[in-house]
Design goal:
This protein has about 425 residues and is an alpha/beta fold. It has 13 helices and 15 strands. The strands form 4 sheets. The chain has a 7-stranded mixed beta sheet with strand order 1-11-10-7-6-2-3, sandwiched between helices. It has a 3-stranded antiparallel beta sheet with strand order 9-8-13, with no helix packed on it. It binds pyridoxal-5'-phosphate.
């Protein structure tokens, strides 16, 4: 008789784990009603003081939370990257390096500002940009690098910043997964040039849709502000437009929700960290699944999902996806994170779906176009198909007994792996 649920055996976990997401209470209700009754549903044309606008207040508070001087709140994490790249001076003819294995927006945002994404391989032990691959990809056209802290686990920022400085490349940290994460005691985002965040509904800090650009550089902050405000300059007449820009302004509703959410963020990150470490310790005891070997410079891991690694050989050759299906059938919410496939394997790149003219990839300012069908990042391909495992953050907001259940599900599949081999 089969033991594994995927083969008809009893399912191990029959209740939800962690906490339903998003979490809210009367703080959010009051904040929304305050905005409603104020009649001020947007910030208006100026960057007001924090006490006068919820958007200004969350810009100040969230930038300060990430130890940055400046914040520009925007409508989502995708346009936050576009805004940061514009602020960094990226334009047609430039290349921007991006890790091959992350969410597609990290690369399509580069195309949206008329530059060419150059995919660099990842470190399969962390799923983050490999600093050597980054350096090897630099050319005279390289203007910036989008560094993604995959799953919130900080990339090797010591090496990345050192390489970027040496080659005069602006660092944009895509922190869409990394709210509250720290590298050597400093919060990610403003470690070098600019940082971007997503506050989309699934993210561990959310208002449904939203984003932010943060920086310590006044010039970048001013440019980001103008770009998100259709090219206006602070203090100038409302109908006077100085630079090319778009409308990426966050509403007061989003600002109000985020201010309320911020009152819980530290406690949530600490609970996730505690349970994340519990998971990692448990994984170490199970042959064939390994936590990310924690770099001591990662002093805080505020994660969107907790990444870990599958060793197919140790599981007698059972493919990673079969393992995921078997563990999920036991009721444990594991997946492969934002690792569906390397970005360049998406049709938008493979089929060069950049419109009739093919700009900016086919652009006289750029030169010989990149052939994305020829891009090959072996570690990204191997990790996305065979190694990457992850568990979403909300599962870590309950007690350790929930994590114990996830470990128990993995142990059960491990103990009955023969059932999967013969399948
Ligand atoms: C790494 C990364 N960058 C950017 C984004 C885009 O954020 P948004 O969905 O808010 O546009 C996401 C979204 O999941 C992401 O995972």
């Amino acid at each position: 008789m089969a033991k594994l649920a995927i083969n008809g055996g009893d399912k191990l976990i029959n209740r939800p784990l962690g906490k339903p997401w998003p979490i809210y209470d009367e703080r959010e209700e009051k904040a929304l009603l305050d905005v409603l009754h104020s009649g001020m549903w947007w910030r208006g044309g100026e960057r007001l003081k924090g006490s006068e606008s919820k958007v200004s207040a969350i810009e100040d508070a969230f930038a300060a939370y990430h130890q940055a001087k400046y914040g520009v709140a925007v409508t989502n994490g995708t346009v936050a990257i576009e805004c940061a790249l514009r602020a960094a001076g990226v334009e047609a003819g430039h290349e921007v390096i991006v890790p091959a294995l992350t969410f597609v927006a990290s690369a399509t945002a580069i195309v949206m500002v008329n530059a060419v994404p150059i995919f660099a391989d990842i470190d399969p032990k962390t799923f983050n940009l490999d600093p050597d691959a980054f350096e090897a990809a630099i050319t005279p056209k390289t203007k910036a690098v989008v560094v993604v802290h995959n799953g919130g686990y900080p990339a090797d920022m010591d090496r990345i910043i050192e390489i970027a400085k040496r080659h005069n490349v602006v660092v944009v940290e895509d922190c869409a997964h990394a709210h509250g994460s720290e590298w050597r005691g400093t919060r990610v985002g403003a470690l070098s040039g600019l940082g971007t965040f997503s506050f989309q509904a699934f993210k561990p800090f959310t208002c449904g849709e939203g984003g932010m650009v943060i920086t310590n550089n006044e010039k970048y902050a001013e440019r980001a502000f103008s770009y998100h405000h259709i090219g206006r300059l602070p203090g100038r007449p409302f109908y006077e437009f100085h630079v090319l820009g778009s409308n990426l302004r966050m509403t007061e509703w989003q600002g109000a929700i985020l201010l309320a959410q911020l009152t819980r963020l530290d406690e949530q990150i600490e609970t996730r960290e505690r349970n994340g470490k519990y998971l990692d310790e448990g994984l170490k005891q199970i042959e064939g699944v390994n936590p990310i070997a924690r770099d001591p410079r990662v002093t805080r891991w505020g994660f969107y999902y907790r990444n870990f690694l599958y060793d197919q050989e140790a599981f007698g050759g059972v493919p990673r996806d079969t393992f995921i299906q078997a563990v999920r059938a036991e009721g444990a919410p594991i997946g492969a994170g934002a690792h569906g496939r390397p970005i360049y394997q998406n049709p938008v790149f493979l089929e060069m779906n950049f419109g009739e003219t093919g700009c900016p990839i086919k652009c006289p300012l750029y030169g010989e176009p990149v052939d994305f069908t020829k891009v090959y990042c072996p570690q990204a391909e191997h990790a996305s198909t065979n190694i990457a495992l992850s568990i979403p953050h909300a599962n870590f907001l309950g007690g350790t007994e929930d994590i114990e259940l996830i470990l128990e599900a993995i142990r059960k599949v491990r103990a009955n792996i023969g059932e999967l081999k013969s399948a």
